[in-house]
């Protein structure tokens, strides 16, 4: 399957800022199950300072903008060829050792709610893959999908407490719970081809766990499946902060307005 993707982000600042920096993780990975056929990143209102590969093997583009900047436009677009590997992305590789993916973060700490949700799974399932599927089902049952119930800083435990959340929350809960069960686990951000819907207002997120003898396997809790040919992996990390499409800082006061438009189409 070949997917055409267009991701446009526009920033409008209330007041001009003296200086700012942004990190973009908007370039898909070449990995088992997906090949980037072509990809471009166009920026207006800011300067591309450098492009580098971070410790999670994400392609990161560093932008800067200077005094007087009122608007920034970011247009990432291209084609990615994908295949259905039942969520399996292969053996562990890269700069980061496996054990690092057992480390919790502020967003993925396995607190009382996470531990309670994962309780008993190891006694109930001897095989690792069925256990992880059962974990995914438990999460969606405990935290049904609902937009607006949480925010980007909501932790895994807080999302369970609220009883509602989005794909980011589901991924954080899965990562936290899987780590508490002894699995290396990571957060994934990317794109998803939706049925009969080309236009979207946000990227998608899911999780991956490292299973002995198989490798990394993806679990999309929000949709109750392992990623297939409709999914495009862009960035991975310990949590959302490592894999967010755009992060940064700016000096000065005043608010900003952000507009995001995403299109994912099958060629």
TrEMBL record:
It comes from the Bacteria. Signal peptide: none annotated. InterPro entries: Bac_transglu_N (IPR013589), Papain-like_cys_pep_sf (IPR038765), Transglutaminase-like (IPR002931). Residues 159-223 form the Transglutaminase-like domain. SUPFAM superfamilies: Cysteine proteinases. This is Transglutaminase family protein. It comes from Aliishimia ponticola.
């Amino acid at each position: 399957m070949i997917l055409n993707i267009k991701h446009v982000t526009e920033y409008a600042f209330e007041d001009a800022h003296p200086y700012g920096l942004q990190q973009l993780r908007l370039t898909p990975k070449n990995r088992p199950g997906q090949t980037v056929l072509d990809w471009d990143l166009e920026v207006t209102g800011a300067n591309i300072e450098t492009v580098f590969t971070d410790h999670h093997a994400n392609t990161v583009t560093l932008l800067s903008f200077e005094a007087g900047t009122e608007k920034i436009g970011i247009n990432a677009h291209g084609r990615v060829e994908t295949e259905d590997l039942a969520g399996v992305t292969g053996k562990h590789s890269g700069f980061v050792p496996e054990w690092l993916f057992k480390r919790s973060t502020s967003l993925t700490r396995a607190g009382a709610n996470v531990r309670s949700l994962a309780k008993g799974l190891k006694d109930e399932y001897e095989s690792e893959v069925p256990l992880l599927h059962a974990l995914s089902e438990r999460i969606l049952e405990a935290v049904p999908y609902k937009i607006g119930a949480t925010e980007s800083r909501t932790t895994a435990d807080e999302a369970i407490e609220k009883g509602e959340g989005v794909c980011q929350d589901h991924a954080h809960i899965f990562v936290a719970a899987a780590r508490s069960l002894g699995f290396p686990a990571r957060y994934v951000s990317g794109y998803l081809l939706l049925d009969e819907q080309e236009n979207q207002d946000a990227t998608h997120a899911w999780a991956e766990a490292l299973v002995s003898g198989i490798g990394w396997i993806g679990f999309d809790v929000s949709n109750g499946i392992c990623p297939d040919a409709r999914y495009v992996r862009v960035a991975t990390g310990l949590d959302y902060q490592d894999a967010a499409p755009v992060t940064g800082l700016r000096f000065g006061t005043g608010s900003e307005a952000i507009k995001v438009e995403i299109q994912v189409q099958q060629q």
